[in-house]
Design brief:
Number of domains: 2
Shape: elongated
CATH class of the largest domain: Alpha Beta
Radius of gyration: 21 Å
CATH topology of the largest domain: Rossmann fold
Distance between the termini: 46 Å
Helix content: 25-40%
Number of helices: 14
Length: about 350
């Protein structure tokens, strides 16, 4: 694997940071600390009665983007500012709380929608993405504030992506919870799935365990990063191996456990039963470094700092006064009606 002195270690397998105060507003950068969006009270949990404990790890960005692009931008506040993203994101959080009723949760936001530590390793990472729409960016602060008002602990970092924060939390709290639910629509996070961790695409209402990930993507959860190392990901500008598409990557990983296994047995590739196998080994050899680099880029890092203990992930009460203030400011009085039952 290609390493740099600044590349983080990986398991599922620097530092400018902005804090978010307890009222949900961004403050000045600080070192080695994740931003905490909600002050969460320590409270008794289900461990006291011996019942199973679970932690919901919530990826905010897919649901903010989904709301922004699916709801009309004519949806505005009394001041005339767009509120479609915060309206949809707030509705998503309240539905999740009502339907799943998680006792513990962590909502992870992307501090930067276009860059991360991965650009130190590979400058072209996400380079083809357009700059985020200003109408979307203007609503992010309100998304943080809604999350805090709902009593949900949240985190954000300018160097690590939300995926990394959730992976780091899954790793850190492995011994504190019986089950984990990763709430996302991002396939990259399927690499976290194991016998105690589910992938929950809330918008589609689908939950994936280990067997389901294999059926959907063609590879085991632990092979997702190897799959992306071979096939690449055009959305994130991860190059992959030239000439290897998703079907070929699945074919290779059906025979080999990971990139190390594949590259240790290139002489066997020509005999595999997929189209182009006879000429595949030279391509793989030529792009060996790119394959390992691409896997590194696709790997959810566990190096993101997570400044919580397990008790700090307990849901706090809904702050109705704060929610009322937001509803008045944004013209979203339905938020107050939606909190019943959560």
């Amino acid at each position: 694997m290609i390493h740099t002195s600044r590349a983080p270690k990986s398991v599922w397998n620097g530092t400018s940071r902005n804090s978010v105060s307890s009222d949900g507003k961004r403050t000045a950068p600080r070192t080695r600390s994740l931003a905490i969006l909600a002050a969460v009270a320590n409270r008794s949990t289900s461990e006291e009665d011996g019942s199973s404990r679970s932690l919901h790890l919530i990826d905010a960005s897919p649901y903010i983007f989904r709301a922004f692009f699916s709801l009309p931008q004519s949806m505005t506040s009394p001041a005339g500012d767009p509120v479609n993203a915060v309206r949809g994101f707030g509705d998503f959080l309240m539905r999740l709380l009502r339907e799943d009723r998680p006792s513990h949760a962590l909502v992870a936001f992307d501090g930067s929608l276009t860059t991360s530590f991965r650009n130190e390793v590979y400058p072209a990472y996400k380079s083809s993405r357009d700059a985020p729409d200003e109408a979307l960016m203007a609503q992010l602060d309100a998304c943080y504030r809604v999350t805090a008002a709902l009593g949900l602990p949240s985190a954000i970092d300018d160097r690590y992506e939300a995926d990394d924060i959730l992976a780091a939390a899954r790793h850190k709290f492995d011994g504190d919870f019986d089950r984990f639910v990763v709430v996302t629509a991002d396939k990259d996070l399927a690499q976290l799935v194991d016998d105690r961790t589910d992938f929950y695409d809330f918008a589609k209402g689908t939950r994936l365990g280990v067997k389901d990930v294999k059926e959907r993507f063609g590879v085991q959860p632990a092979q997702i990063r190897d799959f992306l190392g071979l096939a690449g990901d055009s959305v994130d500008d991860i190059p992959g191996v030239r000439g290897v598409g998703p079907k070929t990557a699945v074919g290779l990983l059906s025979e080999f456990n990971d990139l190390e296994d594949l590259y240790g047995n290139l002489d066997r590739v020509a005999g595999l039963p997929f189209r182009g196998a006879k000429t595949m080994a030279p391509k793989l050899e030529e792009h060996r470094d790119i394959a390992f680099l691409s896997r590194e880029l696709a790997t959810c890092s566990i190096d993101a700092p997570v400044d919580f203990d397990a008790a700090g992930l307990a849901r706090g009460p809904v702050d109705k006064a704060r929610l009322q203030s937001l509803a008045d400011e944004l013209g979203l009085n339905q938020f107050l009606r939606s909190i019943e039952g959560i």
